[in-house]
Amino acid sequence: xxxSKLPNVGTTIFTRMSQLAMxxxxxxxxxxxxxxxxxxxxREAVGRHIAAGHNQYAPMTGxxxxxxxxxxxxxxxxxxxxxxxxxxxxxPGATQAIFCAIQALVQPGDEVIVFDPCYDSYEPSVLxxxxxxxxxxxxxxxxxxxxxxLADALSDRTRLIILNSPHNPSGALISPVELExxxxxxRDRDIYLVSDEVYEHLVxxxxxxxxxxxxxxxxxxxxxxxxxxxxxxxxxxxTGYVVAPPALSAELRKVHQYVSFCGVTPLQWALADFMAxxxxxxxxxxxFYQAKRDLFCDLLADSRFTFNRAAGTYFQLADYxxxxxxxxxxxxxxxxxxxxxxxxxxxxxxxxxPPKDLRLVRFCFAKREETLRQAAEKLCxx
Length: 382
Ligand SMILES: Cc1ncc(COP(=O)(O)O)c(C=O)c1O
Hints:
Layout (H helix, E strand, L loop, with lengths): L12 H12 L2 E2 L11 H12 L12 H15 L5 H4 E4 L2 H12 L5 E6 L5 H7 L3 E6 L9 H7 L4 E7 L11 H11 L5 E5 L19 H4 L2 E6 H4 L8 E4 L2 H14 L5 H13 L2 H21 L14 E5 L1 H4 L4 H12 L1 E2 L1 E2 L13 E5 L4 H12 L2
Parallel strand pairs: 1-10, 3-4, 3-5, 5-6, 6-7
Antiparallel strand pairs: 2-8, 7-8, 9-12, 11-12
Helix pairs in contact: 1-15, 2-12, 3-12, 5-6, 5-11, 13-16
The structure holds pyridoxal-5'-phosphate.
């Protein structure tokens, strides 16, 4: 019998809930993807580049024109001047970038700190590298780093800390002060960072995103990951990038070139064109998604769910204690989907050990206005 390298991995909750939503004819606010399309000019550019013959392998590190656009955006947003050749690598999705960074860094026996609740790809990637995840729960109710618990979790074997801000599933943001605290904590240790910033442009209420790219000391030991899928409403394109200092990028590329070698060529051409022609897209994104968050939250104000508005991402957490305190969150998500026609994600699945009595579900508000109105109507009727 084949001994599984990932015995505890099964079908993910995202696949299960999307399937259940389809079977039940429910509105799917579970998995994180928009129910609207990316910009027309971006989609048309793909067709144009396919017709123009841009259909063979891209360079291993990514198309130079796209890497230059990424560097230009980072200079505009975070004030960091990058060498696009030595520090930017285009990957088939942020998930692959994270996987490669972990394989490049983690040796058998190493420990990797993840903050629970955390995105589900981190732990299997660490396990495949022969490492072990040490789960540090974020402090409730605000999902902030618990500095004492983090300090206690560090050991001589800690090789890597995985940060995620804006944070999925809570929408919480890390602050510049917290980045400073983190720098002080790991200053004299041989610890690296993977900073998962795929929601970097989805930040609300005028609060800027605190990127590791803007923190010189942390950047020198970091892989900063983002996703064009999130920023340009094209999650199915699975195209992302990782930015890291030259020596770290060199190690990451050794893995990336044997995992996929390169990303999809015409998509990279199209993204490069669109980023050059529409630099305003990323500046307009916070207001675009904040309007969706506010519409959804304003409508949900009449429901029995309670919530604090998400500070970032396109996810809204909601506490359902006043509705069905008797149900655990997985049962609640299934009940909402089957009986009330709205699919959500239970928050406990993002934990190694969920807090007792967690009564939170996650709704994705990357949806058209009519979808959000229909969903809110159903949720308010419960
Ligand atoms: C926190 C986080 N990281 C990474 C990803 C994956 O991004 P990509 O689709 O580009 O692989 C997601 C997607 O949901 C995410 O929520």
